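Memo to structure team: turn this sequence into structure tokens by end of day. - J.P.
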Amino acid sequence: MCGIVGLHLRTPDLYPRLGELLSGMLCEMQERGSDSAGVAVYGDPRWSPPGHATVSILDTPLTARELTEIVAAALGGPVQVVDAFPTFLVQAPVPVVELRGAISRAVPEALVIGFGTDLAVLKGVGHPRDLVTGFGLETVQGWQGVGHTRMATESAVTPAGCHPYAVGPGQCLVHNGSFANHATVRRELIAAGVEFDSENDTEVGARFVARQLAEGRDVESALKELCATFDGFYTLLVSNRDSFAVVRDAIDCKPAVIAETADWVAMASEYRALSGLPGVENAAIWEPEPEVVYAWTR
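Reply from structure team:
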């Protein structure tokens, strides 16, 4: 099963409502995946302050205060930490690569689940509605958000196994379905020097796309290459700070609906997640065609 939601806002007037709208969309997908959930938010000034790098981490026993102190010591400069249990958002006014390096030195056991200058990623195990409340998602703002509710099929139910998978700078991917040949592609990526953090098949897709983008392809070319490489049934949503793209497998096995107005573009696994968006009654609404990449840019 699993449920995907994504919301790309075109008008700044709606930026203060991003968390409210994304929360409603995600909770409508809770029946498609009640094991765990995750979100990626672009542009919230508390979760990813302007002029700061933000690194989202899991798997550390430290408190927010302890984490602040030891990362600041490793960085040699000021650090802020937002506790969004079980995720910590570590922030500093330095390039992302410097902050990631300091975290790696200070807390080598920590798992990085997202990094960028405008991106915050939060994941957790539990019912999506409880996680939305725990994250404080309804209060955030920004220009874009992506969410996922998981019903595990390929790997363990852990925070690390939740989506989104954010393995490139400012990038994230969410996935409904399964990749039949993910083990083969994983071996090929490992042979090319790519490292993995989980056994989840979605991470293979995320690492594949991130590598394509790092090699200079745009998101549309990267997703077309994914369609040519991966077998299986899937709907994918890929985003970075400036773009939002959707693609389905060759036979449209997994559900997806896109809606578009002058004020926003949204997608979800089912229409009910879109039904509460402002002005949806005037939206253009359609199901994406097989292996056609639909992309929007800020």
